[in-house]
């Protein structure tokens, strides 16, 4: 068998449903939950797709990025809306780092004359 | 862009298209569409009753859209004769088929188009014209089409792939979006799409790429909001239609490397509830030369109706309603997700 050059293979996304092979009951609970989360509710399925796209970038999940880019297109989301969502994720991620600099500031002040 | 035929592309051959669909299905171990129907208890696949006579009056068009399943364009010269149109009218006269659906190409470019519409309208049937919008701005002789449509109470169905310029122009050609908006304003100005006018203007959404259409009602809401707020345009309903993996959309799928995945997506999204209501069951499609097909897609793939009645001149309702519908792998396009028909989502 040829040496695999990457852990991520796009075709594996289609096998997501197979994760129930060894624990079908838990997988079913997960997929039922997953389906309920993404259904129209107080937020529309379209808004949820955009949140998923932003989170996919924050957690850097290639499968999720493929899935929710396609899902956003299917739901008629504009490119502008998609990239604004991605920037929201990036801003939170960047902000999460920067807000810790308050701790650094505190430490600088604690240690300085 | 020229048509596949004018470019001498292998894909202008329907047998080559069918071979590609067969090959990709075998390579990816995709089930035959017919087998899938059997599994849903829908075999043999039979028509219900003919409610729509869909007449393709020619392949001549002022646009050359990237997803066109007809391979229509300015370089296509196939045009239905007045004699064949007369045969279509005779069929309407001699039957109770309630709807005449006129398509093309740009049907308005057929020199006998207006005569055909007036005669059909005079028969008291619902006449539906698939207007590409930009034809209304294609010259002086098309300028009064909105008034002509209104006078004959024609129902208009027009493609507008998206409420923004970029995706629309990418699919239908540079400048098409701005012209389409202007055409929609002209249709609105005579009452089309305006509540209470009784003049119906429906829009068609095709995905601008290798993905399926989303929920019809959500997209309709988005289109209504955006077209009204940005351009002051009104319309009645939005129909979502899946792109069929044939002709120029097949060319796009191959060239972009999306064919295998798109076919897998169509197959994995097969919806038996949609299969029950596909348009080939209540529609009869007439080609520009009078030949009969189960749908406009089978027409473009040269898959004529089964049975002994082959042309509109030999129309025989009872025989046609007993025929078995011709199927191939492209049929997955009409049964994926919420389904797809000339009137939009099914399930």
UniProtKB/TrEMBL annotation, chain A:
Coiled coil: none annotated. Residues 24-106 form the Carboxymuconolactone decarboxylase-like domain. GO terms for molecular function: peroxiredoxin activity. SUPFAM superfamilies: AhpD-like. This is 4-carboxymuconolactone decarboxylase.
TrEMBL record, chain B:
The keyword Iron-sulfur applies. It comes from the Bacteria. Residues 212-345 form the Arsenosugar biosynthesis radical SAM protein ArsS-like C-terminal domain. SUPFAM superfamilies: Radical SAM enzymes. Residues 55-193 form the Radical SAM core domain. Keywords: Iron, Iron-sulfur, Metal-binding, S-adenosyl-L-methionine. It holds the Pfam family DUF3641. InterPro entries: Aldolase_TIM (IPR013785), ArsS-like_C (IPR024521), rSAM (IPR007197), rSAM_ArsS-like (IPR026351), rSAM_sf (IPR058240). Its cofactor is [4Fe-4S] cluster. GO terms for molecular function: catalytic activity; iron-sulfur cluster binding; metal ion binding. CDD domains: Radical_SAM (cd01335). NCBIfam families: rSAM_SeCys. This is Radical SAM/Cys-rich domain protein. It comes from Leptospira fletcheri. The lineage of its organism: Bacteria, Pseudomonadati, Spirochaetota, Spirochaetia, Leptospirales.
């Amino acid at each position: 068998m040829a040496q695999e050059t990457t852990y991520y293979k796009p075709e594996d996304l289609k096998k997501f449903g197979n994760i129930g092979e060894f624990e079908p009951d838990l997988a079913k609970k997960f997929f039922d939950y997953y389906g309920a989360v993404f259904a129209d509710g107080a937020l529309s399925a379209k808004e949820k797709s955009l949140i998923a796209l932003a989170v996919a970038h924050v957690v850097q999940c290639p499968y999720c990025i493929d899935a929710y880019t396609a899902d956003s297109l299917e739901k008629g989301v504009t490119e502008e809306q998609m990239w604004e969502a991605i920037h929201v994720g990036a801003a939170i991620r960047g902000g999460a780092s920067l807000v810790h600099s308050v701790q650094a500031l505190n430490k600088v002040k604690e240690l300085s004359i | 862009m020229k048509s596949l035929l004018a470019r001498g592309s292998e894909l202008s051959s329907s047998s080559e298209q069918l071979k590609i669909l067969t090959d990709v299905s075998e390579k990816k171990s995709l089930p035959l569409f017919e087998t899938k129907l059997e599994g849903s208890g829908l075999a043999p696949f039979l028509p219900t009753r003919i409610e729509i006579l869909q007449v393709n009056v020619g392949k001549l068009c002022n646009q050359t859209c990237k997803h066109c399943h007809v391979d229509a364009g300015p370089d296509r010269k196939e045009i239905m004769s007045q004699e064949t149109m007369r045969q279509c009218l005779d069929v309407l006269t001699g039957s109770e088929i309630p709807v005449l659906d006129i398509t093309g190409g740009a049907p308005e470019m057929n020199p006998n188009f207006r005569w055909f519409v007036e005669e059909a309208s005079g028969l008291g049937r619902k006449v539906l014209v698939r207007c590409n919008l930009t034809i209304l701005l294609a010259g002086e002789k098309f300028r009064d089409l909105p008034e002509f449509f209104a006078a004959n109470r024609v129902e208009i169905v027009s493609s507008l792939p998206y409420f923004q310029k970029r995706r629309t122009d990418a699919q239908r050609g540079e400048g098409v979006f701005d012209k389409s908006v202007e055409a929609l304003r002209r249709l609105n100005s005579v009452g089309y799409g305006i509540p209470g006018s009784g003049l119906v203007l429906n829009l068609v959404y095709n995905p601008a790429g290798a993905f399926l259409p989303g929920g019809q009602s959500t997209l309709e809401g988005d289109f209504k909001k955006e077209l009204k707020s940005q351009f002051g345009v009104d319309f009645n309903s939005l129909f979502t239609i899946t792109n069929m993996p044939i002709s120029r959309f097949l060319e796009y799928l191959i060239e972009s490397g999306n064919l295998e995945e798109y076919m897998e997506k169509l197959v994995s999204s097969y919806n038996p509830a949609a299969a029950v209501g596909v348009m080939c069951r209540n529609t009869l499609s007439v080609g520009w030369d009078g030949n009969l097909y189960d749908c406009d897609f089978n027409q473009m793939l040269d898959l004529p109706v089964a049975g002994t009645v082959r042309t509109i001149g030999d129309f025989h309702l009872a025989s046609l309603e007993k025929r078995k519908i011709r199927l191939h792998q492209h049929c997955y396009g009409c049964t994926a997700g919420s389904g797809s028909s000339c009137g939009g989502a099914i399930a």
